[in-house]
Design brief:
elongated; single chain; 0% strand; 60% helix; mainly alpha
Length: 73
């Protein structure tokens, strides 16, 4: 099976490669921190802020886009 985002080999049971899986894990962990810091932040708003942030890496942006389209993973 290939990664949905880059066509590298995907890890099982995920449909993402190692790099995009790590990016997804970072997004999920980051949401908990941001949600606490902002006193409540909607998931979709978090993803939009991540995607607009110039410091955000490409893999994280790709996963944020995917998660925004598919819901919280």
């Amino acid at each position: 099976m290939k990664c949905k985002l880059c066509r590298r080999d995907a890890e099982q049971p995920s449909s993402l490669c190692t790099y995009h899986n790590q990016a997804r894990d970072s997004l999920n962990e980051g949401y908990r921190a941001w949600n606490g810091a902002y006193g409540g932040l909607a998931w979709d708003e978090y993803l939009e802020r991540i995607k607009r942030n110039p410091e955000t890496g490409q893999w994280v942006k790709e996963v944020a886009e995917l998660m925004g389209n598919n819901g919280h993973d």
